[in-house]
């Protein structure tokens, strides 16, 4: 099982503002969906709650110290599931019970979950947003990029649908 981080971060590593994303990048949302659909995604409770519903077609494993507070709708779409875990180790073990041995399990935020998972991940899917966000309140942790190799990079300019230029990057641990 491969453990991967997936995130979008500004040039100053901001990933969130006021419980949401500080930009509008539809291509990034599509990239996120295309990579995570059919897989397990581990995320903190606040990140899970920032979506209006569980991510369809994925198993969401919510990290929380209070599992009883995690709201799970009863009308989940087919292929969608929600589980809770009280530690990253428990979340990874839960994912291992669901995912195929050759499958990827994604870490989908927030800041603390990324920081805890970073030493263990095999790959980072990073959308680097070419902007500085001065008032963000959630950040991506510092990464020792010398431990990773850039294996994919695709630039996208700003346009009428994307307020900032951005680059899709895939980094594999050496």
Automatic annotation (TrEMBL):
Catalytic activity field: (6S)-5,6,7,8-tetrahydrofolate + NADP(+) = 7,8-dihydrofolate + NADPH + H(+)
GO MF term set: dihydrofolate reductase activity; NADP binding
Family matches, as InterPro entries: DHFR, DHFR-like_dom_sf, DHFR_CS, DHFR_dom
Pfam family name, one: DHFR_1
Gene Ontology annotations of biological process type: dihydrofolate metabolic process; folic acid metabolic process; one-carbon metabolic process; tetrahydrofolate biosynthetic process
Domain of life (superkingdom): Bacteria
Chain ranges of the DHFR domain: 2-173
Pathway field: Cofactor biosynthesis; tetrahydrofolate biosynthesis; 5,6,7,8-tetrahydrofolate from 7,8-dihydrofolate: step 1/1
Keyword Transferase: no
Keywords for this protein: NADP, One-carbon metabolism, Oxidoreductase
EC number: 1.5.1.3
Biological role stated in the UniProt entry: Key enzyme in folate metabolism. Catalyzes an essential reaction for de novo glycine and purine synthesis, and for DNA precursor synthesis.
Record family assignment: Belongs to the dihydrofolate reductase family.
Protein name: Dihydrofolate reductase
Species, as recorded: Posidoniimonas polymericola
């Amino acid at each position: 099982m491969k453990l991967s981080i997936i995130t979008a971060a500004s040039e100053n590593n901001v990933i969130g503002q006021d419980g949401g994303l500080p930009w509008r990048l539809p291509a990034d949302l599509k990239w996120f969906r295309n990579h995570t659909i059919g897989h397990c995604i581990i995320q903190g409770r606040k990140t899970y709650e920032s979506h209006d519903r569980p991510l369809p077609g994925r198993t969401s494993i919510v990290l929380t110290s209070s599992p009883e507070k995690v709201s799970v709708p009863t009308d989940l779409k087919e292929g969608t599931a929600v589980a809770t875990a009280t530690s990253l180790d428990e979340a990874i073990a839960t994912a291992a019970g669901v995912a195929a041995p050759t499958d990827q399990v994604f870490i989908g935020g927030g800041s603390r979950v990324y920081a805890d998972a970073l030493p263990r991940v095999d790959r980072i899917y990073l959308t680097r947003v070419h902007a500085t966000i001065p008032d963000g309140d959630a950040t991506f942790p510092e990464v020792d990029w010398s431990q990773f190799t850039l294996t994919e990079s695709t630039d996208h300019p700003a346009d009428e649908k994307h307020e900032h230029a951005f680059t899709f990057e895939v980094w594999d641990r050496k």
